[in-house]
Each structure stands twice: as C-alpha cells, then as structure tokens.
Amino acid sequence: MLKKIKEGIERIIPMSLTSLFLFAVVVYMMIIVGKTVLANYAANGETDKEEAKLAQMEADIAYMEDQNNYYQTQSYKEKEARAKLGYKATGESVLSLPIDTPEEKISDSGVVEQKITVPNYRLWWEYFTKK
Q1: What is the secondary structure of the chain as a DSSP string?
Q2: CA 26-29-33 angle, 5° bins
Q3: Distance (Å, rounded) from C-alpha 90 to C-alpha 87?
Q4: How far apart are the first and last CA of the chain?
Q5: Alpha-carbon span 115 to 128, nearest angstrom
Q6: Closest CA to 55 of 63, 66, 43
Q7: For each of the chain's 131 residues, which pLDDT tens digit applies?
Q8: Residues whose CB is less than 8 angstroms from the CB of residue 88 and which lie 6 or more positions away in sequence, other chains included
Q9: How remote is the C-alpha of 26 from its chain's centroid?
Q10: 3-state secondary structure 28-57
Q11: Quick check: 17 and 9 in contact, CB under 8 A?
C-alpha cells in the first residue's frame, strides 16, 4: 500500500520525496535570505537619511556659532547702535534729513507715462495684421 501511494505521488511530482524535501528547504532558505537582504537595504537607506540629517544639523550649528561670534564683535555692536539708537562715533557728525512726501518725489525717468485706452488683445491684433 505504501508503495502504491509512493508511485501515485511520483506520477504527480516527477521527483522523489527526498528531492522534493530538499527543494522545499532550498526555496525556504532563498526566501529567508531575500527578506534579510531587503531588510538590510531598507536599514541602509534609513542610515543614509539619518547621516544626511546629521550633516545638515552640524552645518546649522556651525552657521549659528558663526552668527553668535559675529554678534559679539565690536563692529556689529557699533553698527546696531548707529542704526537703531542713532549713536555716532567721536569725530562724526550726523545728518537728519526730512522724509520725502510722494508729492515731492520726482520721477527718475524722462518718459511720461501714457494711459492706454485700447484693449491689449486689440493692439496685438493690429500688430499682427498690419501690413
């Protein structure tokens, strides 16, 4: 009876049970290795992203340290004191000019603006159809 079952299986599957078992083990191992490789690839991608973030943060820190060092210099303090507080250095004189009103402003251009009353599409039509 066992022999008949074995022959029936061999008719359906053209290999022995031992070969079938080894084939299944090899396929299973390939699946496990494939999953491991994919997980490793994903982990490397995440590592690259985190390293890029770290490099950007280090660059930001360096920029902020440079800004902090600049803000502590005497030249920055003098510049801000002049701009915001109106201070002056010894030997300098400060001029205070009145603010120009819109009526007092004169156009830098010598061309007088002309108001166009014809619609734009009409001007283009005339441009292309004029001979």
Answers
A1: -HHHHHHHHHHHSSS-HHHHHHHHHHHHHHHHHHHHHHHHHHHHHHHHHHHHHHHHHHHHHHHHHHHHHHHTSHHHHHHHIIIII----TT-----PPPPPTTT---S-SSPP----S-HHHHHHHHHH--
A2: 140
A3: 10
A4: 105
A5: 22
A6: 63
A7: 778 877 777 777 767 778 878 989 999 999 999 999 999 999 999 999 999 999 999 999 999 999 999 999 998 988 888 888 877 777 877 777 788 777 767 766 667 777 888 899 998 999 999 85
A8: 82, 94
A9: 45
A10: HHHHHHHHHHHHHHHHHHHHHHHHHHHHHH
A11: yes
For residue 108, give both structure tokens: 């830098």
Amino acid in position 98:
P
Q: Which amino acid is at 100?
A: D
Structure tokens at 27: 């396929």
Q: State how far the Cα of 32 lies from the Cα of 36, in Å rounded to an integer.
A: 6
